[in-house]
C-alpha cells in the first residue's frame, strides 16, 4: 500500500468509492445527538438514531483495532474515521459535527473490550475471484494458518464453489472459494462465463461484504493481456462489484531483474504493476476515477519472517495483519454506506453505463455525403458524362465482327496473340457497356417526358390494370445447422407489386434456426407525386439477449430548375435507449459543373440534443476530375466541434463503365481547443486483367492511422495463399497461449 500511505488523510480519495467527500475531525456523536435531540420532530429523532448507530460502528472499529494489535494512529484507520465522519455530516446535515473528537469512542471501546460486554458481533464474508493457479486457496490457508482449502501446484484444485469458514480473534471469516478462470482467449470465453454465472447465482441471495481479485505480481508486465477477462467480469457481475474489490497480488516477494541485470526497486516495481492493473480495470468499468486498494501476499513458507515469526514482504510490511485490517476497514465503510443509504455497495446484475455519443463522431458522420432518394436514376455527374457523349458516334456499332475462340483454340495462340486477343475483348466489352448505359439513360429521359404528357387519370387506370406476378427470390445460403434436410417451407422471399422488398436477416455464424432467421430487413422506394420521391429502409434484429432496430426514412423534391430539397428521419437503438436524428438538405445547382449543398441536423439521445450544420460544394472539371469541399459544426450545450475536409478524385478514362479512380483527402477537426489534422488516399484499379485491387490508407496528426488493401480475382486464385500466413499465425498464437497457461499451472 505504498500509494495509499504516501498521501495525506485530508486529500486522499483512493481508498473506496463509497465516500468521496471531505470534512473535519470527529467528536463524540452521542453528545451531538443529545444536544440536537428534539422529541417532537421526527426527522431529528431519525438523525439521532443514525448518529448513534454510526457511533456504534466507530466503537466496533476501535475494539477490532485493539484485538488485532493495530495502532489508532494508523494512516488507513485515520482515513476510515475521516470518511465515517464525512458520510454522517453529508447525509445528516449536522453542522456542529466539525467539533467532534474520537476520544470518547476510544474510551468506550477500551472499556467494552476489557469487560467483554457487550459481545462483539462482527463478521466478514469475502468472495475470492481470480485465474487458476494464482494462489487463491493458498492465501486462505495462510490467513487461517492451517489447511482449510486444497491446493495443487500442477492442476486446478478448486473445482466447485465452496465456503471456507473460520475465526480469527473472535471475528468470523467466511471465504467463498471459487474455481479459477482460464487465461483470456476465444476458446476459454465460454468456460469463464459459465464459472462467473455460477458464482453470480451462488452469491445472489447473500452478497459478499468484500471481493478479492487475485493476480500474480511476477506475471504482470507490459504485455499483460487479461483485459477481456476483466471486461467479462464487469458484464456478468456489473460495474458495482469493483467498488468493494481489493486487488490481491500474490508472490509479493518477487523482484525481477532490470535491463541491466540487477534487481529493480521493489517499490517502483509494485507501483508499476498495480498501476497497470488499475488501468485495465478503469477501462473495463469504465471509470477513470476508481482506485482499488492493493494488498501484497506471500504464501511461500520459506519467505522472510520477523522476530515474531510473521511473514513479511521485502519492504518490511507484515502482509497478513495489513490484509485483515484492509478487509475490516472496507467492511466498516460498507456498513456505514448501508446505514446512511449511500449508493456504491455490491449490486448484483450488470449495470449498463449510458453511452453518450461524442461530438467529433457525430460531426464526422454528418459531414459524409448523403444521397437523395431518386427512383430509377443514376448519379447526376454520370448523367452529365453520358449526355456529353450522346452526340458522338457510337463506336461499338462500327466495330467489325469478331470470332470467339474456344478454350482449345485459345491455348494454341502465342503469348503475344493471347494478349492482343484479350485486349480486344476488353475494348469491345467497355464499348458495349457504355452503349448500354447510354440507351438506359435515353429511355429514362423519354419515359419521364412521356409521363408528363399522359393524363393522370388514364395513367392511374393503366397502373391498376397491370398486376405483375410475384417473383420468387433465390434461396438464401444459410450456415450449417441441425435443421431438417427438407427446407422447402423455409427461407423463401417474394417480391410483389407493392414495391416493398422484405428479406430475412441471418447470422452467418449461427447454429440456431428455430425461427428461420434472426431479423427482418425491409426496403421500399416510391414516387409520391411528380418530382417527389421517398425511400424507407429498416432492419430489426433480435436474439435471446439483445434487440436492435435501425431505420432510415427520406423524402426529396427535385425542382425542374435543378434544386433538390430533402428531409429525413433516422432511428437507431443503442442499448435500452434510442437515437433519433432529423436532417434536411438543400442542393443548389448554380453552375453546370458545380453543385452546392447545405444541411442541418438535430440528434436526440436521452435528455441531450445535438444540433449540426454543414456546407458542401462539389465541382467537376472535365469528365474525370472531381473536387468536394465541406465544412460544418456540431453543438451540444456549451460544447462545439468544428470540422471540414477537402477531397480530390481522379477517375479513369472509362468511367462510369469502369470504376477506376484515385482520391486524395485532407480533413481537420477541432474540439475542446485541440486540432486534429488527417490525410488519406483511396484507390481502386485493375493491376492486371481479371484482378481488382482497392487501397485505403489514412494518417492523422496524432500518429494514428491504418492501411487496408483488398484484392479480388476470379482467375488468379493463387492470391488465396495469403490466408496461409493468417492461419499459421493463429495456430502459433494458440500454441503460445496454451504453453503460457501450462506454465502458470505448474508455477502456481
Automatic annotation (TrEMBL):
Keyword Protein transport: yes
Protein family per UniProt: Belongs to the TRAFAC class TrmE-Era-EngA-EngB-Septin-like GTPase superfamily. AIG1/Toc34/Toc159-like paraseptin GTPase family. TOC159 subfamily.
Region Disordered: start-end pairs: 1-29, 442-466
SUPFAM superfamilies named in the record: P-loop containing nucleoside triphosphate hydrolases
Residue ranges with Basic and acidic residues bias: 442-451
Amino acid composition bias (Low complexity), ranges on this chain: 1-17
Gene Ontology MF terms: GTP binding; GTPase activity; metal ion binding
Cofactor: Mg(2+)
Compartment(s): Plastid, Chloroplast outer membrane
Name of the protein in its database record: TRANSLOCASE OF CHLOROPLAST 90 CHLOROPLASTIC
InterPro entries: G_AIG1, GIMA/IAN/Toc, P-loop_NTPase, TOC159_MAD, Toc86_159
Protein topology in the membrane: Single-pass membrane protein
